[in-house]
Design a protein that fits this description.
Blueprint (H helix, E strand, L loop, with lengths): L1 H70 L3 H25 L5 E5 L8 H8 L5 E8 L2 H10 L6 E8 L2 H11 L19 E4 L4 H53 L16 H12 L5 H30 L1
Antiparallel strand pairs: 1-3, 1-4, 2-3
Length: about 325
């Protein structure tokens, strides 16, 4: 009996839960229908407002066209039309320039005044056009060392390259600024310096980087050769020193043992006289010496002696005075 009652209670609970779910689904469906109706009403209101705005715009445009038609004959209307056409042309030019591919151009600066940095150069050239990369060649190492010894740690530059985004701007800058003053006012730092600019035709930034890399490579190669030559010289000197020490030790040992030590003597051969030279030549050609050749040799010897006597007289006279 108890089990039957429990089963009946469970069945009643299930029925009640199912009834509740059905009621909730009906309420949700009703709320959705109400929302859809509200949204449709809002859309209709928006459409009506958009139609009203379009009608107002059309009316305004018609009024403006009527006003323009009236002002066509007046000079103010003609001026407005001309200005509008010019604006349209300028916009077309700007769009065409933007569509074109801008080729960068590079200018060369042959003179860089002292205390001029890439930052200053960029600020001076940006008003003329968009500036890209800048490279300034620093001074030689020897010059910098001399300056450091003198007490100045400033690093100056000798030449430079500036890249503009558009090569037409670079050409214009090189043509207009060459041989003109760098500063616009007398109080400016670089007023008394002149621009030395040249446009580099068909020159790219890669060419500059390749050239700098080549110069660096040549410098390193030169340093390597100098270092190797210095090493060779030092090794040769050290080897000779070792040899001389070894020879000195051998000489000392021989002296201790009582052996004779042969000392090196430098043999000098005296230059042959003119007679001896002539005699050798004649011996090669003939077996006997002719009297003519002997006379020639004597005359040459007498002339040399006369010159010696003249020189002795000259020097003796100068000493006596």
């Amino acid at each position: 009996m108890e089990r039957r009652e429990e089963k009946e209670e469970e069945e009643e609970e299930r029925r009640n839960a199912a009834h509740r779910e059905e009621e909730e689904d009906e309420a949700a469906a009703n709320s959705r229908e109400d929302d859809d109706q509200d949204n449709s009403d809002d859309d209709d209101d928006d459409k009506d407002e958009a139609d009203d705005q379009e009608e107002r715009k059309k009316n305004d445009d018609d009024d403006e066209e009527e006003g323009e038609d009236k002002d066509e004959d007046t000079p103010s209307g003609k001026k407005k039309r001309a200005n509008q056409k010019e604006d349209e042309k300028q916009q077309q030019k700007v769009t065409s320039c933007s569509d074109r591919k801008c080729v960068p151009g590079i200018i060369y600066l042959g003179h860089i005044p002292p205390r001029l940095c890439p930052k200053h150069l960029r600020t001076m050239l940006t008003p003329y056009g968009e500036v890209g990369r800048i490279f300034l060649q620093p001074e030689d190492g020897m010059v910098r060392r001399k300056k450091k010894k003198a007490g100045s740690r400033r690093c100056d530059f000798t030449e430079g390259w500036v890249e503009f985004r558009d090569k037409r701007v670079a050409k214009r800058v090189a043509a207009s600024l060459h041989n003109t003053a760098m500063g616009t006012r007398k109080r400016q730092r670089f007023f008394y310096d002149l621009w030395c600019i040249k446009y580099l035709h068909r020159f790219q930034w890669t060419h500059l980087s390749e050239r700098l890399a080549y110069e660096q490579m040549v410098l390193q190669q030169r340093l390597r050769t100098e270092v190797s030559q210095a090493k060779r010289e030092t090794n040769f000197y050290l080897n000779n020193v070792d040899k001389s020490l070894h020879l000195d030790k051998q000489r000392k040992r021989k002296q201790k043992d009582g052996q004779q030590v042969q000392q090196k003597t430098w043999d000098f051969t005296q230059r042959q006289t003119e007679e001896e030279i002539q005699m050798k030549k004649l011996k090669k050609h003939k077996g006997s010496v002719s009297q003519k050749h002997l006379d020639k040799a004597r005359l040459i010897q007498e002339k040399s002696q006369s010159n010696v006597s003249l020189l002795a007289k000259i020097f003796n006279s100068s000493q006596s005075q």
